[in-house]
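#structure-requests
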Amino acid sequence: MPAERPSPPPFEAADLERSLDRYLMWGLVFMVVLIVGFVAYRAREPQLRRDATTAQQKSYREIGTQLFATNCSGCHGKNAVGGSGPVLNAKEFLKSTTDNQIVGLVAGGVPGTEMPAWSLAFGGTLTDEQILEITTYLRALEPKAPSVPTWRSGKT
């Protein structure tokens, strides 16, 4: 008769099981830290976005002021109060136009008038970002804009 073979030790020794339990515990701890981090991020993100938007609007307004003074004030006057071109600092103009309409007017110009196209896409000298900055500047004038019913005819 053949000699009886010895049986192998159990497949998972106690130290291997403790090691696995340790890795599972660290995995759970890491998952909890991630979940808490995501919740904290989500709670803080809206304020961060508001702060970033405010900073961008301020920056656009400042740059738009300079761009308007350089490129637009020759026809629309200093502070957009009118000249040979329409008064842009008028409650009637600012209330009746959207930002997209202002961007379109500046970018493509107004055919049949002295208003040229300013966008690079239409042969002008301003980038889309610069046109947005000018639009932001004009929109910033709206809260204190005077009523000028004859805004289309320029400075009176």
